[in-house]
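pls read this protein.

:::
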Amino acid sequence: MTVRITNDQFQLTAREWAPEWHGADFLRDVYPPVIKRRQTRPLADPVISSHFKDKNGDAIEFFASESQAGAMRAAHLLAPGHTLVVNLPTGFGKSLLFQTVTIGAWVAHQSVSVIVVPTTALAKEQEERLQIMLADADSSHSGTPIAYHAELAQDDKDAFRTRIRRGEQPVVIASPESVVGALRLSLTSRAERGELAWVVIDEVHMLSQWGEDFRSDFQLLAALIRQWQTAPRRNDPGNALRTLTLTATLSEETLFTLRTLLAPPRVGTQERFHLFVAAQLRQEPAYYMLECPDEPTKQSRVIEAVRHLPKPLIVYTVKPADALTLYDEIQDRTAISRMALFRGGDAGNKKGTENLRKWNRAEIDIIVATSAFGLGMDNQHVRTVIHACIPETVDRYYQEVGRGGRDGNRSLAVCLWSKYDRGVADKLAKKTRIGLEKGWERWRGMKSQRGDGPTTDTFTVNVTHRPIEITSDSDLNETWNQRTLLLMAAAQLITVSCPERKEEKDDDIDNLFQTYNIKEHRALTHETWLEHVDKERQRAAQRDERAIRTRDELFDCTLNFNKLFASTYTVNLSDRTKLVPDHGGTQCPVSRTAPPHAVLSQTAQVGWTSALFDHLSNNHSLQQIIGDVNGQFIWVHYDPDQKGRNWRGQITALLKQLVDRNFIEFALPEELFKKVQGEAMFTEFERYLVLKRLDNSPPSVADPHTPPLPLPRVSVMGRGQTPQDYRTQLRSIRATTRPKHVVVFPSDLADPDQPERRFQDAHNTQSLAGLLTLWSN
């Protein structure tokens, strides 16, 4: 609209963009900006705030979220030899978990850790952050390269491996190919000396997805981790390898793959595979779906949407060729210059790395990409994600949409698709699996030329073996042999492990995995093959069909999107416990006609497997001194010395004794909090201790801002408070559930149920002074 103000002045008002091909007003969902995600930030534990700084160089005083606080404690308290899968929503701070455990292992024990990432771009991004934190914790290793990748010069690669063998490399960030290939012998030497502390797998959902596509290095990575877990640890047999895996999206199918590949062998009845899950769906995206009559129409509408929708903006395609075509069309038909192309192979080359840096620095407004783009992305302000395709699964779609709105503000998720896209998605979703008889013949052929394995119960097979009808070597032939072996492994007929290497060098990765170690779990007859492999093929086919049905429900808009996402990301923690994400809040084509939904609580539902903290409940040394401590609560009274401050020193001495007896969580009154916070026992790397303020919170929020993990706890009630304060604190303490809970209270505390009596006279209690005397003898 134009309005004349004077003879030579006009006021121009731009019309709001409303495409003819869609009646909805896209922009109402992003303008004006509205925060859709708010996170409570609990106080960081002293071990973290004392030793680690954020990217601005300031001490980390607060956790990013309540869920991060719980996950941090679960990771740092993980028992040796165990595996932990952590699921934290995007933006809830999962990177800090592996940064702190790996740096802590180096500073405390001079033990190296391995961080496995799927792309070179992500390796470089993580290296930049870790080097800053490592320099703060150990200045002697400032600037030491910690990312191993193809762009390093050969001399730098050789020096990297030498540092590992000498025990001078604090952290290794590398791809699965490098870990099972060029770095394997060096890392195995540290594992056998008890000096390999952690294997961390970031973006672990990619392991599941690429494992399904038979990317053998991921399968071999799992086998190598099992080898390290059982390696003879000459220097410290009790310091067994811990494994930590992290993802923002955890489906039941991904969990099945992780449990199959990464679960350590049980020791007796002890479970050593654990979950820590924070279930919460993204609240930022507003979803739009539109089927286009043909490809030219779709392309025209995508270009129009790119021109008008808010930036930064990502356009996703499935095929690299489609990404290139669309990128060229956008350039030809618009005047947009701050734009880049990013396809699968670009993640490991200099151009792709530079584009990712520019994107993270807000020097690019639009990226046209395949699904490879997003890992390693640190642009928090993406406002629009456009799909010019149909991803093959709901899981992939949700991950790509989740790259928008990471700053907590509203974002748009617009999908424009055609029948061509549905056909492409169906083809990708339906995996081609080898037939039963052809697979059996391939297995017989490989086994007929077997070699001696590294142990008496294993043998080697070579995947270059050709069936009689194939006359020449080819990558496709090797791929089908690999698929046969991995199908058998999934059917639990064999174990496939890493090929032997006698020296470390940077071989062509395609030639590295031709010989595999095989262990048969049973005598394999034709009948056994048919029975077990057919069951696995059927299970996999049913999974594919289920994934296609769920995807079609999404793109046909037959169900509320968040209900569908909630179903996809429901996790079974046990036979009786399911963790279902909250599925309200976001607008989609199905829910858009409903009244606006209020911003949801930003406290994610948190759950964990029951055995995760079992090793912390062993308090035999406490029982030997106190006597019967079979109950949850142990009551200890102290004399509130009115003339001096000796009671504070006595309580501090008690806390030091309880730290040595496996107590983890300490809730203290304000008058003790600052004194104890500076004590060495709460700040050294070897211990992870939780320090809280014991306030007057009602029982319903006894532990505000953090999930109530089952940690052995100490609660100290201060002196000189009102009777109401004491009653409130007692209700709060009794509302908590801990395997062991030591409660320290002043001897003049009245019993809330019988105010005329002292609490210590109405309960079985211990004297603080008496305990300290016993412990000193």
